[in-house]
Each structure stands twice: as C-alpha cells, then as structure tokens.
C-alpha cells in the first residue's frame, strides 16, 4: 500500500523496479517481526542483510536503492557494506539520527497506540493485519524507534554517522518541508554528511510525499537515476 500506488507512474521501460516486503510485514509472515534482534542495532540493520541476499538470489549484481523513512537505515547500511554493488541511492523522509524532537513526537503517538494513525491509513492496515495484530506491531515499531533514539548508535552524533560518511555512491536526499514525523533538519544533516549527495525539498511535502506529490517525486528520482547511469555507461 506504500509503493504499489506509484508503480503506474514509474518508467518501466527504462528501469526495472523491484519492491520487497521485509520479513514480518505484509504477507512476508511468519516470522513475526523482531525488534532489536541479537547482534544488530535494530531490525532495519538486519533487513539490510536480507535485502542484499534477495538481490543475490535474483542474480542482480549492480543496483540502485530507493529507501523511505526508516528503510533509509537499511539502504544506507547496504550502500556502506556493499559499495561494489550499490550504484546509487535515493532516500526520502529518512534520517541518520533520531533527535529529542522526534522522540517527543513518538512518545505522544505511543499514548494513542494505532489510533494515532489517520483513519484512512488505519483502516487500510487493519485489512492487512487485523486490529489486534496492528496494535501490537505499531506498539513494537514505536518502542524500537524510541529505543534507537536513545542508543549510542542512532542518537545525534551516534556511531551510525560513520556509516553515512562512508557511503561512496551518489545519493539523492528528498524531504518534505511539512514532514511532521521526521524534521527537515534530518535531510540537511544527511546531505551534509554523505560524500556525494544533493538535496531536493518538496514544498508542502509530508512524510508520505511520494503518494501525495507523486509526479514531482517520480520526475526527481528518474532524472537522478538517468544521470547516474549515463555517467556509469
């Protein structure tokens, strides 16, 4: 429901698009999604291992990554660990750290549980998971992200900054100036920390700007990818 609505707007003759369900989401269950899996700083870091293995199984040696929100942690981890495979990366509404402002917002959301979600979004999710499981998953997700914001890895100035600094591929950072979940300051932080990046700010863009400003989003990412692959070839 997050990516499928924009597929019709994407150029499928010039590019091959691969979307995935991380384990524990959508119909990729079981297993139940873990939080803070042993040996990893968060589940999004473990997802990087799964996503890299998926691309190997598909026989794709070189690819670009498009990563939304916390999926940006997965994408940045992959780009850092596998520079020989990741040609470029796009992040939108993402972050390299979770500051106190975000932590406060998350705590206010946690008091309401899944009822903090907009009604239309909540109804869509209930159709996938059922109300009881949705509440559990939403609570777990907030617990993990709040824990990340208080860890030595994802707090401001945390060790994840070294991951960002070591990403060598070209990066496009996109962020909406009306994102109430991840402040736009996070986008400026990413843009200034990556070795080779540029920032595109979407006017009136919210956290799910790809669904609301789809035309601008698609034009931006496809222009970036075209430039990257023209330069490579």
TrEMBL record:
Tell me which Gene3D superfamilies the record gives: alpha/beta hydrolase (3.40.50.1820)
**Looking at the Swiss-Prot or TrEMBL record, what is one Pfam family this protein matches?**
Abhydrolase_1
Identify the domain of life: Eukaryota
Q: Which UniProt keywords apply?
A: Hydrolase
Task: Provide the GO MF annotations for this entry.
Answer: serine hydrolase activity
Occurrences of domain AB hydrolase-1 (ranges): 4-100
Q: InterPro entries this protein is in?
A: AB_hydrolase_1, AB_hydrolase_fold
UniProt cross-references to PANTHER family, sorted A to Z: VALACYCLOVIR HYDROLASE
Supply the name of the protein. Answer: Valacyclovir hydrolase
């Amino acid at each position: 429901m997050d990516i499928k609505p924009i597929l019709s707007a994407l150029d499928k003759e010039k590019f091959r698009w691969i979307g995935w369900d991380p384990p524990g989401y959508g119909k990729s269950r079981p297993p139940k999604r873990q939080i803070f899996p042993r040996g990893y700083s968060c589940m999004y870091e473990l997802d990087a291992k799964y996503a890299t293995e998926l691309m190997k199984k598909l026989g794709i040696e070189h690819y670009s990554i498009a990563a939304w929100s916390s999926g940006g942690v997965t994408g940045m981890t992959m780009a850092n660990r596998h520079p020989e495979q990741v040609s470029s990366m796009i992040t939108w509404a993402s972050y390299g750290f979770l500051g106190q402002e975000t932590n406060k917002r998350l705590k206010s959301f946690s008091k309401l549980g899944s009822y903090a979600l907009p009604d239309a979004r909540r109804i869509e999710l209930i159709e996938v998971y059922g109300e009881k499981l949705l509440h559990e998953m939403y609570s777990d997700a907030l617990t993990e992200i709040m824990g990340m914001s208080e860890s030595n890895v994802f707090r401001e100035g945390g060790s994840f900054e070294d991951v960002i600094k070591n990403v060598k591929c070209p990066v496009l950072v996109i962020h909406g100036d009306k994102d109430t979940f991840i402040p736009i300051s996070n986008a400026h932080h990413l843009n200034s920390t990556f070795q080779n990046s540029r920032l595109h700010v979407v006017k009136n863009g919210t956290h799910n700007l790809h669904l609301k400003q789809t035309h601008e989003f698609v034009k931006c990412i496809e222009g970036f990818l075209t430039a990257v692959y023209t330069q490579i070839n």
